[in-house]
């Protein structure tokens, strides 16, 4: 089983990012991947990126910069209004790994 390292970002770095991380973990598991997720707020992204090996960022709050790894806006996954759009973006990232 391939492992995917996911940084999950929301405004406070707690509840919403944990909800998104759990949903992403479930989606990845269905596709045969194991997920390692860490939750943070936008201010913690740079430090975590410098101290780890991440495959993607999923976020519900605006990020403070642009990063050299795939990012997916996860608001649709959170609200359920564009869950398929999120899954399509995730699939595109997985196809490239």
Task: Please explain how this structure is put together.
With 97 residues, the chain is an alpha/beta fold. Helices cover 42% and strands 24% of the residues. It is built from four helices and four strands; from the N terminus they run βαβαββαα. The chain has helices at residues 15-30, 45-50, 75-79, 83-96; strands at residues 2-9, 33-40, 56-59, 71-73. It has a four-stranded parallel beta sheet, covered by helices on one side. Strand 1, helix 1 and strand 2 (33-40) form a beta-alpha-beta unit. It starts with a strand and ends with a helix. The model has no long low-confidence stretch (mean pLDDT 94).
Q: Any descriptors?
A:
24% strand, four-stranded parallel β-sheet, 4 helices, alpha/beta, 97 residues
Low-confidence stretches: none
Let me know the number of strands.
4
Helix tally?
4
Amino- and carboxy-terminal Cα gap: 13 Å
Instruction: Based on Cα principal axes, name the global outline.
Output: globular
- Content of β-strand: 15-25%
As a percent range, the share of helical residues equals 40-55%
Largest sheet: 4 strands, parallel
The topology string of helices and strands comes to EHEHEEHH
Global mean pLDDT: 94
For the biggest β-sheet, the strand order reads 2-1-3-4
Radius of gyration: 12 Å
Structural class category: alpha/beta
